[in-house]
Design a protein that fits this description.
- The complex is a heterodimer of chains A (91) and B (508).
- Chain A is mainly α and 91 residues long.
- Helix content of chain A is 64%, strand content 0%.
- Chain A is built from five helices and no strands.
- Chain A is elongated, with a radius of gyration of 19 Å.
- Chain B has one domain (5-415): Sodium/glucose cotransporter, CATH 1.20.1730.
- Chain B is built from 23 helices and two strands.
- Chain B has helices at 5-24, 36-39, 48-59, 62-75, 82-107, 112-120, 123-155, 161-182, 185-213, 215-222, 225-228, 239-255, 259-266, 271-280, 282-301, 310-316, 321-329, 332-370, 376-400, 403-417, 421-429, 435-455, 476-506, and strands at residues 462-467, 470-475.
- Chain B has a two-stranded antiparallel ribbon.
- In chain B, a hairpin with a 2-residue loop joins strand 1 and strand 2 (470-475).
- The chains are: A mainly alpha (91), B mainly alpha (508).
- At the A-B interface, helix 2, helix 4 and helix 5 of A face helix 3, helix 5, helix 10, helix 12 and helix 14 of B.
Chain lengths: 91, 508
């Protein structure tokens, strides 16, 4: 039973595997070190990397949302701390 | 260059406004500023939005807004490595730092050295962490001054001689005064103004300037082809490809180990605030990507060939590219806004950096080795004084030694700070690493990284590692970090064994 619990805990973090994507996307430099195809006159090298800023942000936010859905209702340490964050979560 | 009066008036007005804000900040979320976690961490109460402004203001510094486009202006595509860097810092922030925040919050840690001291029970290791943090941060504050000096010069002031340095010195006295009274609350509040000004200035630049120059295709057509992409590597070498990626990865791993970044992270009100920011801070990454493109716009606008800017380029080199571009493209009042954004962009990180150094010195050197029995009020008073000393040190550093040394020291700072990753990372998941092994790993990594930079005459942190005749040029910080980790992994079992033997021998 203890084993099941541990396995469950490990699986709880599966969305974080998505973080591999931005690393791979920018790791392989020869793939994007080119001028064509251009977008609005901007060479591929530049718009590809700028685009990955947005995709990277989307991945981080997606992982956050899935993570907190899965973790919702459990007694994760940061979930609990959030309630004590004094003047609300946003300010 | 002639003094631009309108721009100077706008610049000074905005500067006075943030000065007022800096002092008012003491009353914001009023608390006892004689407690170090209130003065130095804002009471750990910053929510998602304040943390977003604070970290944005803290991490994207004035020097970056000046030096980064200067690099793209001079060297081309390689300068764009900050974009992959700015992409991968956020998964790292998400994965590692909420957990660090939770430990630091539960155990009352204010600095990375506090945390390492607690996790591994070693004062020497904590001292190494504290000293590394302070030494790596000092030149980082100094280079902020370089950014500020360039915009003051671009307004039309002479920045030579004692009187030339006066505006800089006045700005730093103001900075020192409001940091002393308000602590981290001051840069947190000013960061809101700074970030909004930067957003306005950069958005205007990437819309207005291309329109003046005939669109983005005209801009990229004006750039020499060899600057547009990375040079293809020669035979038996990964050339600029591995340099590009290792610079991005190494800088990303180093970023949140810097004391000022960690201070920003620890002042958040919860781990979830950090996670949300890992997504939202990308807005600034986009700004940085666009800032880098300003370097190409400066090439297309031909600012370096404009006789009006010849003196500026002669004095400041490529760092003058962005200020010249703004003066060439915008009406005076907007130049004042943009330059104020850059100068305030120097104040925010400089304030947070000096607070972070002050926290390190007070908690991990003064209290640890000097006056273990000092009261909380004494501790905070000491930290306030040290924050002044650190700023004076940075000003002296920039005025007394040639600027190139400050830049080289800042380069070395990146190599030194990354060596803190093994204790910080391993401390999150295990306490079983031996502090002796971590200390030796730190020493070996620091020495090796410094040596690698020395072989390049301290002008580049890219080291051409050669394995079996195959060259892989890469960021010295990353290479020396790998060795550091290997030393820790290899020596930990050895020290464990020695520890057990000693324990066994102690039993009669």
């Amino acid at each position: 039973m203890a084993r099941d619990k541990q396995k469950g805990r490990w699986w709880r973090y599966w969305p974080r595997l998505l973080f591999v994507l931005p690393f791979v996307a920018v790791l392989w430099v020869p793939f994007y070190n080119r001028i064509e195809p251009e977008l609005f006159g901007i060479p591929f090298f530049y718009w590809y990397q700028l685009l990955w800023i947005l995709l990277g942000a989307a991945i981080v936010l997606a992982v956050y949302v899935i993570d907190s859905r899965i973790g919702g209702g459990t007694t994760s340490s940061d979930g609990k701390e959030d309630e004590t964050g004094i003047p609300g979560g946003t300010l | 260059m002639t003094l631009d009066v309108t721009a100077t008036v706008v610049f000074c007005a905005l500067f006075l406004f943030v000065t007022w804000l800096g002092f008012v900040a003491a009353h914001w979320r009023k608390a006892d500023l004689n407690l170090l976690h209130e003065w130095g961490l804002g009471g750990r109460r910053f929510g998602t939005m304040v943390t977003w402004f604070l970290l944005g203001g803290d991490l994207y510094t004035a020097y970056a807004f000046i030096a980064l486009p200067a690099l793209v202006f001079g060297a081309g595509a390689i300068g764009f490595f900050v974009v992959p860097y700015a992409i991968i810092i956020y998964p790292i922030l998400f994965l590692i730092f909420p957990r660090l925040w939770a430990i630091a919050h539960a155990r009352g840690h204010v600095t990375a050295a506090d945390y390492v001291r607690d996790r591994f029970g070693s004062r020497t290791l904590a001292l190494a962490v504290a000293l590394t943090g302070i030494v790596a941060t000092m030149p980082y504050i100094a280079v902020q001054l370089i950014g500020m000096e360039v915009v003051i010069g671009a307004l039309g002031f002479s920045t030579q001689g004692f009187f030339g340095h006066l505006p800089l010195i006045i700005a730093f006295i103001i900075l020192a005064a409001f940091t002393y009274t308000s602590g981290l609350r001051a840069p947190a509040l000013i960061a809101v103004v700074k970030d909004l000004l930067i957003f306005v200035a950069i958005s205007a630049a990437v819309i207005v300037i291309p329109a003046q120059l005939g669109g983005y295709s005209a801009i990229f057509n004006a750039v020499p082809t060899e600057k547009l992409t990375l040079p293809a590597p020669g035979e038996n070498s990964l050339g600029s490809y591995s340099a590009y990626f290792t610079l991005a990865l190494g800088s990303a791993l180093a970023l949140f180990l810097y004391p000022h970044a960690l201070t920003g992270v620890l002042s958040a009100s919860s781990g979830n605030v950090i996670k949300r920011n890992a997504g939202m801070l990308s807005a600034y990454s986009l700004i940085v990507g666009l800032v880098a493109l300003l370097g190409f716009m400066a090439i297309a606008a031909g600012v370096d060939k404009n006789p009006a800017f010849a003196a500026g380029f002669a004095q400041y080199g490529p760092n003058f590219a962005v200020p010249a571009l703004f003066r060439a493209s915008f009406p005076s009042w907007f130049v004042g806004v943009a330059f104020a954004a850059i100068a305030i962009g120097a104040l925010v990180p400089a304030a947070i950096m000096s607070i972070a150094c002050a926290n390190l010195f007070t908690r991990n050197i003064y209290k640890e080795f000097w006056r273990p029995d000092c009261s909380e009020t004494d501790e905070t008073r000491m930290a306030k004084i040290v924050s002044l000393v650190v700023k004076i040190g940075a000003v002296v550093l920039i005025l007394a030694i040639p600027q190139t040394y400050a830049i080289q020291l800042q380069l070395l700072g990146g190599i030194w700070i990354i060596q803190l990753l093994p204790p910080v990372l391993l401390g999150l998941y295990t306490r079983s690493s031996s502090p002796q092994a971590l200390l030796i790993g730190w020493a070996v990594g620091t020495g090796l990284g410094t040596y690698m930079a020395a072989t390049q005459g301290f002008t580049s942190s890219v080291y051409p590692l050669t394995v079996f005749g195959f060259t892989v040029p890469g960021y010295a910080a990353l290479y020396s970090l790998v060795i550091n980790f290997l030393v820790v992994v290899a020596l930990t079992p050895l020290f464990d064994l020695l520890g057990k033997r000693r324990a066994a021998a102690a039993v009669p």
